[in-house]
């Protein structure tokens, strides 16, 4: 990003960057997966993934030897892209990589990702504090659902463009440090995470790129009540529509995955196989790092 996205007064720089961004979508065809033929990603594969993430903030990939793509594969792939600092969370496995599948009971059953229900639009870690900012993620499909379970993806920089084109003041509203508050997480009367307040749009200190923190949930979300913030929230909801030309819909198959600089994403509801051992299973790795840029 060649301009400060939080400076809405610099229209010349914005229009230059906007033109380059829109052209990137025409050039890269981001809905087409990169084929990884060898047991590990080659230098050329890594270069293509980094180029895509640098330009449009995400990349789809397909591993030809799907059975070989276990957790160690995901970890190695991440490291080749500059992703090393994993984020542990309440439901992640001991290696801090989460096995996302339907949980019938226990702690996981209380969280939507571990059910077969629809998962609304969000960026990962929107409830984290600033020191644990999620900058990138890898989502890898081991087994798809029998039906459903599509992911919808929207580059947060494209959402920024659409919001700014509608009204630059919406960007200003989403920059407020208290525009989005996530109430504390309380389990069995014990606070396991305090309330988290912060902006939607901020500048990532490690890369100088735009960072977005967002959730479309209607429960356990507190938006600032001033009129401009409410208008911005309403506009954002309208953009998160399947008719938005920049929303990508993709249903991952075994051996396929998404690498992203924490873009907006969701998941449709799904139906699993009656065979519990064949149910939908994804590995999710969240990182405090961002995918290394092509010039790095």
Quick overview of this protein structure:
This protein has 296 residues and is α+β, with helices and mostly antiparallel strands. 25% of the residues lie in helices and 24% in strands. It contains six helices and 19 strands.
Got a strand count? 19
Low-pLDDT stretches are none
- Widest sheet: strand ordering: 1-2-16-5-19-3
Rg for CA atoms: 19 Å
Total number of helices: 6
> Which series of helices and strands comes N to C?
HEHEHEEEEEHHEEEEEEEHEEEEE
What's the story with the biggest beta sheet? Answer: 6 strands, mixed
Q: In which range does the helix fraction lie? A: 10-25%
Mean model confidence by pLDDT: 91
Question: In percent terms, what proportion of residues is strand?
Answer: 15-25%
Structural class: alpha+beta
How far do the termini sit from each other?
14 Å
Global outline: globular
Folded structure, characterized:
This protein has 296 residues and is α+β, with helices and mostly antiparallel strands. It has 6 helices and 19 strands. It has helices at residues 11-28, 43-56, 71-80, 156-166, 168-174, 227-239; strands at 34-36, 58-63, 98-100, 119-122, 136-143, 147-148, 151-154, 180-182, 185-187, 190-193, 196-198, 201-203, 210-212, 222-223, 248-250, 256-260, 264-267, 270-271, 281-287. A 6-stranded mixed β-sheet has the order 1-2-16-5-19-3. Helix 2 (43-56) links the parallel strand 1 (34-36) and strand 2. The protein is globular and about 55 Å long. The model has no long low-confidence stretch (mean pLDDT 91).
């Amino acid at each position: 990003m060649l301009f400060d996205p939080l400076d809405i007064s610099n229209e010349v720089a914005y229009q230059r960057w906007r033109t380059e961004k829109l052209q990137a979508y025409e050039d890269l065809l981001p809905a087409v997966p990169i084929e990884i033929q060898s047991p590990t990603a080659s230098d050329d594969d890594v270069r293509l993934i980094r180029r895509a993430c640098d330009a449009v903030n995400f990349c789809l990939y397909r591993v030809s030897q799907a059975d070989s793509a276990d957790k160690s594969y995901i970890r190695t792939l991440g490291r080749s892209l500059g992703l090393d600092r994993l984020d542990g969370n309440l439901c992640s496995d001991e290696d801090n990589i989460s096995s996302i599948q339907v949980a019938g009971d226990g702690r996981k059953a209380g969280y939507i990702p571990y059910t077969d229900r629809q998962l609304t639009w969000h960026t990962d870690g929107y409830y984290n504090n600033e020191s644990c900012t999620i900058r990138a993620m890898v989502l890898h499909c081991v087994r798809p659902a029998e039906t459903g379970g599509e992911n919808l993806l929207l580059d947060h920089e494209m959402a920024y463009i659409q919001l700014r084109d509608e009204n630059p003041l919406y960007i200003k509203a989403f920059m407020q440090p208290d525009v989005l508050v996530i109430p504390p997480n309380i389990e069995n009367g014990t606070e396991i995470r305090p309330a988290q307040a912060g902006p939607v749009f901020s500048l990532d200190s490690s890369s100088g790129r735009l960072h977005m923190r967002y959730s479309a949930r209607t429960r356990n979300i507190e938006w600032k009540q001033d009129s401009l913030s409410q208008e911005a929230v309403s506009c954002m909801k309208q953009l998160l529509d399947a008719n938005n030309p920049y929303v990508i819909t993709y249903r991952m198959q075994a051996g396929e995955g998404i690498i992203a600089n924490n873009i907006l994403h969701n998941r449709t509801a799904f139906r699993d196989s009656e065979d519990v051992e064949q149910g939908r299973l994804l590995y999710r790795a969240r990182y405090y790092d961002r995918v290394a840029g092509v010039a790095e």
